[in-house]
């Protein structure tokens, strides 16, 4: 499994409300797929700053913390470590303090030059306690604010120095300062909250008759949906948006590059299919990729089947385009807990058996098109093919929604060396042999570009091509 990067959210309401905590808590649940190592929430109110974070899932970190915290401004974060190790000290949001200034920052992405910036900041007297690049962004922001007292100008100066991917929300007094890197690598969108939303917690039902107005900025539009909000638009690459007391006080496009570099992997792997990113429905993109693979592959098979759950949308597209029936061949146990994270080899084998079970009647003697989203090391695909073979499948033709991953990602995805990528070492027939499939058909780069509907020059395809924007 590829570790995803992070999910962020910032919420600004027009008035103080006990709902602020629940809004953040539920949106982090919605973004949980983007990071499961740690979670954190920070809220500012008249009494000061509430910040709580910890290792684990949102429900684990906040199990006993859902007490009443009134406020109108807050941010949240779920994390997978892509820079800095997985530890509490690296979990977010980060408190950034310098003399009379106090910020709290949550970041999604990876800053490739963060070590150089950190060294420079340390030489200026800053103490940066974690190994996370996100804390470096926070202190760099403070440094820029010393040069110019204007927040927008400070963000513009920050963008000049930072190299890499970053979608950021900063909590500062009653403001949310949100910005996205000029290449637009990681998603960030804004929505409006103007409907009545009622949550029940253990102790109370509150504000059921009031409409709470405000704005939300989040990694994915599904977070806005959760609060019955309305997606307004994506934050533009290189743009800063500032929210204050539930209204937008600043929208400024600071850096416009000739090309953007939206991560294609958000569409094929990271994001939830019910999200809309940069104007494109992730579900539609995955369906279209499945259709395009089917048109080219033209495989003689009895039915199309997804790898649960990652291959589902691609497989539906394949089935519609090919005319083959869509039939499940594997059932996923959705109740396998976190006990199996970092298992040894023996546990790993057991984990696959507990996680996925074949439907013998569907599989026996059948020629199957098995569809998945991506192949990284090939080990998971090999195990799945093995399960189907043991269940009596006659032929297994693997179709993959992402073209061969041949080069590391330095922008927030955890395949950072060639060794982790089977396609960097083996050709397609060697991969097919290693996995034990009768054939493998990958989506092509052109399929991906066509399906996403963004020009090739404006997408990051570096892990597919080995050509880097930075
Ligand atoms: S290298 Fe691949 S995974 Fe990384 S940002 Fe680019 S497209 Fe996304």
How many distinct beta strands? Answer: 23
Instruction: Name the ligand types.
Output: iron/sulfur cluster
The coarse overall form would be: globular
Structure annotation, total helices: 15
Taking the alpha carbons of the first and last residues, their distance comes to 26 Å
Strand content: 25-35%
Strand count, sense and closure of the main sheet? 7 strands, antiparallel
Notable characteristics:
7-stranded antiparallel beta sheet, Glutamine Phosphoribosylpyrophosphate, subunit 1, domain 1, 23 strands, binds iron/sulfur cluster, 6-stranded antiparallel beta sheet, globular, about 475 residues, single chain, Rossmann fold, 15 helices, about 30% strand
Folded structure, characterized:
The protein is of the alpha+beta class and 470 residues long. The protein folds into two domains: 6-257, Glutamine Phosphoribosylpyrophosphate, subunit 1, domain 1 (4-Layer Sandwich); 280-465, Rossmann fold (3-Layer(aba) Sandwich), CATH 3.40.50. The chain contains 15 helices and 23 strands. The chain has helices at 19-30, 58-61, 114-123, 133-147, 151-161, 221-226, 264-270, 282-297, 312-322, 345-355, 360-363, 379-390, 428-435, 445-452, 462-465, and strands at 6-17, 38-45, 48-55, 71-79, 94-98, 101-111, 164-172, 175-180, 189-193, 214-218, 230-234, 239-244, 247-253, 262-263, 276-277, 280-281, 303-306, 330-332, 356-358, 367-372, 395-400, 439-442, 459-460. A seven-stranded antiparallel β-sheet has the order 3-2-4-1-10-9-11. A six-stranded antiparallel β-sheet has the order 5-6-7-8-12-13. It has a four-stranded parallel β-sheet with strand order 17-20-21-22, with helices on both faces. α8 runs antiparallel to α14. The protein is globular, with a radius of gyration of 23 Å. The two termini are 26 Å apart. The model is unreliable at 202-209 (pLDDT under 50). Bound molecules: iron/sulfur cluster (SF4). Residues 185, 263-265, 409, 411, 413, 460-463 line the site of iron/sulfur cluster.
């Amino acid at each position: 499994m590829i570790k995803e990067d992070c999910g962020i959210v910032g919420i600004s309401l027009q008035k103080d409300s006990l709902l602020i905590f629940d809004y953040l808590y539920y949106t982090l649940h919605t973004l949980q797929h983007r990071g499961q190592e740690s979670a954190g929430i920070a809220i500012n109110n008249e009494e000061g700053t509430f910040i709580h974070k910890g290792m684990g899932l949102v429900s684990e970190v906040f199990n006993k913390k859902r007490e009443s915290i009134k406020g109108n401004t807050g941010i949240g974060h779920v994390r997978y470590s892509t820079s800095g190790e997985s530890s509490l000290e690296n979990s977010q949001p980060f408190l950034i303090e310098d003399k009379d200034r106090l910020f709290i920052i949550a970041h999604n992405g990876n800053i490739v030059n963060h070590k150089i910036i950190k060294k420079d900041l340390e030489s200026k007297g800053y103490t940066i306690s974690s190994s996370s690049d996100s804390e470096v962004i926070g202190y760099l922001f403070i440094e820029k604010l010393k040069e110019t007292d204007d927040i927008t100008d400070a963000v513009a100066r920050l963008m000049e120095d930072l190299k890499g991917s970053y979608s950021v929300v900063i909590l500062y007094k009653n403001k949310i300062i949100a910005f996205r890197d000029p290449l637009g690598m990681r998603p960030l969108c804004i929505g409006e909250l103007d409907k009545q939303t009622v949550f029940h917690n253990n102790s109370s039902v509150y504000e059921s008759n009031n409409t709470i107005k405000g704005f939300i900025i989040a990694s994915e539009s599904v977070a806005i949906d959760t609060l019955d909000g309305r997606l307004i638009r994506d934050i533009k690459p290189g743009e800063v948006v500032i929210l204050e007391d539930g209204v937008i006080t600043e929208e400024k496009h600071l850096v416009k590059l000739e090309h953007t570099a939206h991560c294609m992997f958000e569409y094929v792997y990271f994001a939830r299919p019910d999200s809309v990113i940069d104007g494109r429905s992730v579900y539609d993109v995955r369906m279209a990729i499945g259709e395009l693979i089917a048109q080219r592959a033209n495989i003689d098979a009895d039915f199309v089947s997804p790898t649960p759950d990652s291959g589902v949308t691609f497989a539906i597209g394949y089935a519609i385009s090919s005319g083959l029936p869509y039939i499940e061949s594997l059932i996923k146990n959705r109740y396998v807990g976190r006990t199996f994270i970092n298992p040894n080899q023996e546990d790993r084998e057991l984990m696959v058996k507990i996680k996925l079970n074949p439907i013998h009647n569907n599989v026996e003697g059948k020629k199957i098109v098995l569809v998945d989203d991506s192949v990284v090391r090939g080990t998971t695909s090999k195990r799945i093919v093995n399960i189907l073979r043991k269940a009596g499948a006659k032929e297994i033709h693997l179709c993959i929604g992402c073209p061969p991953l041949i080069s590391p990602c330095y922008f927030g995805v955890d395949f950072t060396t060639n060794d982790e990528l089977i396609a960097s070492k083996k050709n397609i027939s060697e991969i097919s042999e290693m996995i034990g499939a009768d054939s493998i058909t990958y989506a092509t780069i052109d399929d991906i570009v066509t399906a996403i509907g963004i020009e090739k020059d404006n997408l990051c395809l570096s892990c597919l091509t080995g050509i880097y924007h930075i």
